[in-house]
Structure formats: C-alpha cells, structure tokens
Amino acid sequence: MPRLPTEEEDNITGCCGLSRFFSNNNNNKTLISISADEEKKSFSPYTYSAIPSMDNLPAYEDCISRAFEQLDMKQDNILENIVQDALTKVDKDLRTISLDLHEHMEVGMKEKHAHDLLTGYMEKQGFKITRHAYGMETAFMAEYSRGQGGRRVGICSEYDGLPGLGQGCGHNLIAISGLAAAIGIKAAMENNKVEGKVILFGTPAEELSIGKIQLVNKRAFQDNVDVCLMLHPSAVGAPYAQMIAVQDVKVEFFGKPTHAAASPWEGVNALDAMVQLWNNISMMRQQLMPTDRVHGIVTDGGQAPNVIPAHTSAFFFVRTPKYTELKRVMDKMEGCFEAAAIATGCKVKWTWRETPTKDVVQNNIMAATYGKYMEKAGVQFPPRQAQEQGGGGSTDMGNVSYVVPSIHPMFAIHTTASNHTVEFTKAAKTIQAHQDTMLASKSLALTALHVYTSESYYKAVKKDFNDHVPLDEQH
Ligand SMILES: [Zn+2]
Ligand SMILES: [Zn+2]
Predict the structure, then answer these.
(1) Terminus of the chain with fewer CB atoms < 10 Å: N or C?
(2) Predicted pLDDT of residue 8
(3) pLDDT at position 66
C-alpha cells in the first residue's frame, strides 16, 4: 500500500521553493485553462444542432490577427506609395552613383572614393553621418531618427570590387540598394507613419570577409539596431538563398635548400611537401560531405628550378553549410598538413583566421515578407528548397545574422552569368539591373517598415531568430 506523505514531508516540499514557484507562476494559469476546457466539453453536445460548436469558432487571437491584416493592407498601400515616391525622386542620382562605383572600382579596405561619394550623398539627403566608423577608414554610418524610442533598423551597403574583374559581384548595386532602402524608410518617418531609427551601415571589404566581422566584433550592430537587412544581386532571385560558412588557412612548409642537380640528397624539399599536401586534400575530399568545399592556391612554390625549394606556402578556404561544422573539416585539414610534413621531413606551420565567416541565418519572417512584395510586383522565385540548396557562396553578413535578426536575399538582374565573372561585371551596369535593384530595394524598405509598425510582427521576427540561433551563439 503506498505510503502517504506525512504532514512534515509536505511542509518540506513547501519550503524548497518549488511549490511556491508553481503556485506563483504556472499553476494558476494551468488551473484556469483546465477549467475552461472542462467547461467547453460540458457545453459541446450540439453535433446535430444549427448552433456551431465552440470548437469550430475562430480563436480570439485569430480574429485579432485577421483584423490586423486588414489594417495592414490599408497601411501598406499608403506606405508603398510613400516609398515609391521617395525612390522615384532619387532614381537618377542612384543610377549615377552606381555607374560611378562601377567605373571607379576599389578593392576591399581601400574604398576611399566610394566612402566619400556615399557619405556625401547621404549627408545631402539629411542623414547624420559618421565617417570612418569604428576606426575603419572606409566604413561609415548614416542615421536618421524620428520621435522618441521606436525600433531601430539597420541596412547594409557594400561597395568593394574584385581585382581584375571590377564590380564582378555587383556591389555597386548593393551600395545603391542600401541608400534606396534607407531613403525609403526615412520618407515614411517624415510622413509621420513610423517612429524609430534607421541606420545605413557602409561595410567595406565584403570580398575579403572583413568589414562586417570587425563591425560585429566592435558591437556595431548589437548595440545599435534590432534587425538588419541587405540585398545582393545574382542571376537567380532567392529570398531564402543559402550562404554557407567559410574559414581560411595559410600553410607554410620549411625545408632546406641545396643544388637541385649536384647534391639534391642534402636538401629537404618544401615543394614536395606542398605536392603531398595537395594529394592528401584530394583524397580527403572523398570522405567529405557533398556540401563541404575545400579549395586553394599555392602562393609560393619555390624560387628557382635549380634550387631545392626551402619554403613554400598555400592559402585555402574551407566551407561547410553551418559554421559549427567547420571544425570537422579543419581537423581533417590539419591531419593533411602534418602528414605532408612528416613524409617529406619538412617543418609545417599553419594559421587559421581568428573569426570564421558564419553562414547566413535568413530570418524566415522577414524573408517571407520581402518575397511577398517581390511576387506582388510580378517577380517569380524557384521553390524554397531549390533556393536553400542553390548557394555555395559566403558573406560576412552571416556574422551579422548571428547577432541580430537579418536577411540577405538575392535578387535577379536579368543575366545568366554567375557572380565573379566578366559577364556579371557587364550585367551590373545595365539599366535593367538598375531597375531590378530599385524594385528589390523598395521591397526591402517595405519589409523593414513592418518592424516599426507592428509589435506582433517584430515579436515573430525575434522568435524566429531565437528559434534558429541558440542564445549562447548570439554573439
Ligand atoms: Zn562576391
Ligand atoms: Zn558579393
């Protein structure tokens, strides 16, 4: 027979604090919902009558959210007109800026012309400018705020190019898309439709994956904005585009030089170590996941054919879909380095980058809203699964997406060329690409406006972020 707790044991349970917790917090709510359930059951025998069962009636919350949707639609049309008008006004200016950046391409961390051009223009547009933001020569912030409090939205512009290719990734279009979205949001504020702050971040050196990572390390996003949005041109539009994680490593082999013909046996060949490393990596690939990537170049292959190379070096990228998987491939790579050194008698040294570039966590709520506006304008996208499997590229926006809810949709610019090609460089200056950019920028601004106008929308955005980025990774 089960023993009943004594009065004393009951008291002990009461003293541990657990029962107090239940009675103060959850227990009351649970009791209420149970009794409501019981009530429903006792009042729902009307399966045969014209009176609808209580179970079939829409929940109170559903009625509210439907009402919100209707309100939003009205609000939407007003905001859409405001944003469209603002963008029409600056369209020509932005086209000129875009062509200027295309003509005067600058590589990462050296975008002085772009920095001055963009900050000068945004200053004229009434934004408060911070030049050389966070100690970076070519980073900037352009802010505009209205009212007390309100939400804070970040937008990113990129403007660096590729050596030998010019604007082969279309960052001249990203630059003006950031300007356009920030100007559109400012217009809604000036028309007293929203309150809060918009910050355009000028983020240098995306191709080197440096700019946003340094800004994240200095808490530029975490301390200043609640969400962050940006756009990227591509051959195919994809609101949910997958952007994967990347880490890089520099490897050096140290041998011993000698005359390559007279006394090769006295040398230790650092180039042999490099060749061996290449073979190790090629064999390792068989055991990698189909979604992993390892690729590199030799940066020093020796000095002269008649000298056994004493030093060689290489530079590799390692990519996995999530940044938390990088270590799996990094460990295998280190095995390859060591094996090559042992086999050839060389010494080896390798250096991984301090902070890897993380994958982009696309915020599902904001990505869906952006997609909805694009579709409304007649743009079609591949199925979501195809969008999520299509990517192989990486961006430092990934690191931003781990600290604040973010989106990085790809928008199509009427080309079949891949990014980082001569053809894409040409496509990035067409009038068609410009129009595509303006349309996508308008959709991005309208998406951002929901963050200001609807508490429930922002809550959903935040919930999606917390669901996909564990708390201990939000840094
Ligand atoms: Zn690129
Ligand atoms: Zn790019």
Answers:
(1) N
(2) 43
(3) 53
Q: Length of the chain, please? A: 475
Upper half-sphere CA count for residue 12 (Cβ side, 13 Å): 5
The ligand minimizing its distance to the Cα of 232 is 2
* Ligand positioned closest to the Cα atom of 159: 2
Which contiguous run of DSSP H or E holds residue 299? strand 293-300
Which ligand neighbours the alpha carbon of 177 most closely?
2
Mean pLDDT for the chain? 88
Q: Where are the domains of the chain?
A: 75-243+360-473, 245-352
Distance from the CA of 386 to the center of ligand 2, in angstroms? Answer: 20
Q: Distance between CA atoms of 250 and 248, rounded to whole angstroms?
A: 7
Write the pLDDT tens digit of every residue in 384-442: 999 988 767 999 999 999 999 999 999 999 999 999 999 999 999 999 999 999 999 99
Compute how many other C-beta atoms are within 10 angstroms of the C-beta atom of residue 263: 10
**Three-state DSSP state, 97:** helix
Binned at pLDDT 50, 70 and 90, residue 255 comes out as very high
Angle between helical axes of 171-190 and 112-124 (0-180°, round to 10): 20
CATH topology of domain 75-243+360-473: Aminopeptidase (3.40.630)
The pTM is what? 0.83
pLDDT digit string, tens, across residues 266-301: 999 999 999 999 999 999 999 999 999 999 999 999
Q: Taking residues 79-95, what's their average pLDDT?
A: 98
State the distance from the centre of ligand 2 to the C-alpha of 415, rounded, in angstroms. Answer: 15
Ion ligand 1 residues within 5 Å by Cβ: 169
pLDDT of residue 27: 33
How far is the C-alpha of 357 from the C-alpha of 342, rounded, in Å? 31
The CA 207 to ligand 1 mean position distance, Å, reads: 5
What distance in angstroms lies between residue 420's CA and the mean position of ligand 2's atoms?
8
For residue 46, what pLDDT is reported? 33
245-352 CATH pick, 3.40.630.30, 3.30.70.360, 2.40.50.140, 2.130.10.10: 3.30.70.360
- 136 C-alpha vs ligand 1 centroid, how far in Å? 20
Distances (CA, A) of 111 to 131, 136, 159, 171, 252: 13, 11, 7, 12, 31
Tell me, yes or no, if the two domains 75-243+360-473 and 245-352 fold the same way: no
